[in-house]
């Protein structure tokens, strides 16, 4: 899954980016409010981590503009501001969660997983689809309790499909969540990756809906 980090503090931005990448996310990052708003308005992200105190355009203004333009990706707001009224204003503007600074990275990752799950209609960090199981916290896919060895890209693909089980996901959407905006996306990269994952998982786990994309059915692998 691709996450956008908008934070003007270099150390915090670099630390958050490193933690997200270690947790299996693809990360785009910006220090400028204006550039961050533009990326969030023109690219597809599974979630955004947004600081409030930004140069050029503050985080609250960015959030309000995104929601006015019907950008619905979940947003986790970071802030050093202590006022409860500012937190309420941020939530009312469309924030999905709030995390005050300073924070522990494990809490940020847990809150990020939670808002992404909620946006996908999932309640638990362990998602079971037939005989396959995704443990987001452990970054592990298992079948009948046996862990499956996957590359980072393979894990991103199957975890995104399992998180969105029961919904057809287009090749374009998958491509957008598998690589950073700075990488050139090859036309057949998703097909190649799906073929690799299918060789490691039960044949029924990923179905092709020709002309539409791929789906992990809610009852995949149950037979």
Label the CATH architecture of the largest domain. 3-Layer(aba) Sandwich
What fraction of the residues are assigned to beta strands by DSSP? 15-25%
Query: What does the overall shape look like?
Result: globular
Q: How many E strands? A: 11
Helix- and strand-based class?
alpha/beta
Strand order of the largest sheet: 2-1-3-4-5
Number of domains: 2
Percentage of residues assigned to helices: 40-55%
Radius of gyration: 18 Å
Q: Can you give the mean pLDDT?
A: 88
- Say what oligomer this is: single chain
CATH hierarchy, class of the largest domain: Alpha Beta
CATH names the topology of the largest domain as: Rossmann fold
Number of helices: 8
Sequence stretches where pLDDT stays below 50 over 5 or more residues: none
H-E string: EHEHEHEHEHEEEEHHHEE
Name of the CATH superfamily of the largest domain: Response regulator
CA distance, first residue to last residue: 29 Å
Largest sheet: 5 strands, parallel
General description of the model:
The protein is an alpha/beta fold. It folds into two domains: 2-119, Rossmann fold, CATH 3.40.50.2300; 126-215, Winged helix-like DNA-binding domain superfamily/Winged helix DNA-binding domain (Arc Repressor Mutant, subunit A, Orthogonal Bundle), CATH 1.10.10. It is 40% helix and 20% strand. The chain has helices at 10-22, 33-42, 59-68, 84-93, 105-119, 152-163, 171-178, 189-200, and strands spanning 2-6, 26-30, 47-51, 75-79, 97-100, 126-129, 132-135, 140-143, 146-147, 207-209, 213-215. It has a five-stranded parallel β-sheet, with helices on both faces. It has a four-stranded antiparallel β-sheet with strand order 6-7-8-9, covered by helices on one side. A hairpin with a 2-residue loop joins β8 and β9 (146-147). α2 packs parallel to α3 and α6 (152-163) packs across α8 (189-200). The longest helix has 15 residues, at 105-119.
């Amino acid at each position: 899954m691709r996450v956008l980090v908008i934070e003007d503090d270099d150390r915090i931005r670099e630390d958050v980016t490193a933690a997200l990448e270690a947790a299996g996310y693809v990360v785009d990052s910006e220090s400028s409010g204006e550039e961050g708003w533009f990326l969030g308005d023109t690219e597809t992200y599974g979630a955004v981590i947004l600081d409030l105190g930004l140069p050029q355009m503050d985080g609250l203004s960015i959030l309000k503009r995104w929601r006015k333009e019907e950008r619905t990706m979940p947003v986790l707001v970071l802030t050093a501001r202590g006022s409860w009224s500012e937190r309420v204003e941020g939530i009312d503007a469309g924030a999905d969660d709030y995390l005050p600074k300073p924070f522990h990275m494990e809490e940020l990752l847990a809150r990020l997983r939670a808002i992404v799950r909620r946006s996908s209609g999932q309640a638990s960090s362990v998602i079971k689809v037939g005989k396959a199981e995704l443990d987001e916290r452990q970054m592990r896919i298992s079948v009948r309790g046996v862990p499956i060895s996957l590359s980072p890209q393979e894990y991103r693909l199957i975890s995104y499909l399992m998180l969105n089980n029961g919904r057809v996901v287009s090749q374009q959407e998958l491509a957008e969540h598998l690589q950073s905006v700075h990488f050139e996306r090859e036309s057949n990269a998703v097909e190649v990756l799906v073929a690799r994952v299918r060789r490691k998982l039960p044949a029924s786990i990923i179905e092709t809906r020709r002309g539409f994309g791929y789906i992990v059915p809610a009852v995949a692998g149950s037979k």
